[in-house]
Amino acid sequence: MVAIAATSYATQTAQAWQSRSRLQQARREADQAESDARQLRQQADQAELQAQRSQTRVGALAAEVAREDHTYSARPSATAKHASGSGRLVDALA
């Protein structure tokens, strides 16, 4: 009877050790997953900031191009100046 009790206790102790070991492993994996998630969030935040900076640059360049297009389209060309003689915009457009 004592031998059965000792064997039963040893089995329970081994099972408890295995359970604690699995629990510790699960905790390590959860900690690693949280660390990975934090790192990915940080990378995503950095990528979002870069995207916003790029979009700001696109807007600034688009505005610059629009100003240049407007500036150049409002000026008479050298050929139009010489052809009309006066160089007035109305003459260049006529």
Question: Can you put this structure into words, describing what you see?
Answer:
This protein is mostly helical. Helix content is 90%, strand content 0%. It is rod-shaped, with a radius of gyration of 39 Å.
% residues in beta strands: under 5%
User: Gap between N and C termini, in Å?
Assistant: 118 Å
Helix content: over 70%
DSSP, total strands: 0
Question: What order do the helices and strands follow?
Answer: HHH
Short description:
The chain has 94 residues and is an all-alpha fold. The chain is 90% helix and 0% strand.
Task: Explain the layout of strands and helices.
Layout: H1 2-74, H2 78-84, H3 89-93
What are the defining features of this structure?
single chain, 94 residues, mainly alpha, 3 helices
